[in-house]
Amino acid sequence: MRMARGRGRGGPMRGGMRPGPRPLPHGVKPMYLPRHPFDLALCEPSFPRVKPAPDETAFTNALMKRNLDLTPTQQEHTAVLNLVTKVQAVLDGLIITPGTFDACQIEEVREVGSYKKGTMITGHNVADLVVILKTFPTREAVDKFAQKVHEDLLTSCGQDSGTKATLTTTERGFELSMQGATVRILVTTILQNLRKLSPELHLDAKIIQSHLAAVRHSRWFEENAHHSSIKVLIRLLRDLRKRFDGLEPLSPWMLDLLAHNAILNNPSRQALPINIAYRRCLQLLAAGLFLPGSASITDPCEANNMRVHTAMTLEQHDLVCLTAQTLLRVLSHGGFQRILEGNTPDITGETSAWNDVIVSPLEKAYEKPPEKKDDEDMEDMNTEETMDT
């Protein structure tokens, strides 16, 4: 049967030849459309189960036990709380009655970090306070500020040998430690001063902006991620990142958003069980959630729909993805105890066996192109000049 050709006024007839897509005008780039990787939790109704879900009681109990082991003891929490209360009192005194201290003026003090969010891990008894200055954060002013806070803290503690606080200056501000607890003072300034910063006089502008971002992160977390399951998952993910080097590029903020997404981003909008959410995190990373071209997770505290994974390099994208793929294979064959409690030998770098299944570490898919050295560039220039003559 011959195919009818569409020559009518309305264009090609149904079943006839259709024109292809029109070429873009010269100089116009095609629109970039980021894609979200496959996520079973979002499309589970389209993939009904053939077999009943396996019993994961042992895995769930192991997750909860690991979270209990990572949770700071009451003694650790009390030590951090006491030090934070004393430092806050000193900073409030400098705001209300600075006296003769004029090295800087404090606008506001905000609690940030894992202590504020309730995700602190045992053995890392550190609380973060962001001090926003009205004045410019010169290095000299920050040093005087640190000395003043340290002196006032010693005075409030009575200078007893058992409660003596130690001072350590850093590029971000300074730290005060006492009785196994530490308070980090992260110094920044008001927005009006950001454009007037000088790299020779003031603290690094990127560090200052990161401290302001930490305040936004803390405020967003308090409003949107207060569910207890999210805090448990964050603690478990931070422990995972600490023990597997391939996940080191993931920042604490990335882990916060990943945990929030894994727990609450589902059709029912109800918190998923911790065992499903933990596996979902590895599934998303293994599927390419933080790879170039992925829709990833939009940073809720930044403008222009910025995606959180863009802070990583291409090598780090690849490293996180292949590490998650290896861990997911180990988890799928019953190796959750090794993932949760140990990494000797490194299961992401050496071949391992799980229930007669061999899991081999994956190789990198991205290799950074070699950079030309200055000597090679000079030789190329000399060769071109010789050819020209």
From TrEMBL:
Q: Which UniProt keywords apply?
A: Activator, DNA-binding, Nucleus, Transcription, Transcription regulation
UniProt keyword Transcription present = yes
GO CC annotation: catalytic step 2 spliceosome
Spell out the Acidic residues composition-biased ranges.
Answer: 376-389
Q: Which segments constitute the DZF domain?
A: 22-379
Give the span(s) annotated as Disordered. 1-24, 364-389
The molecular function terms in GO held by this entry are: DNA binding; double-stranded RNA binding
Q: Where is the composition biased (Basic and acidic residues)?
A: 364-375
Give the UniProt record's GO annotations in the biological process aspect: positive regulation of DNA-templated transcription
The Gly residues compositionally biased stretches are 9-18
One Pfam family hit: DZF_N
Name of the protein in its database record:
Interleukin enhancer-binding factor 2
As recorded in Swiss-Prot or TrEMBL, the protein's gene is named LOC113204375
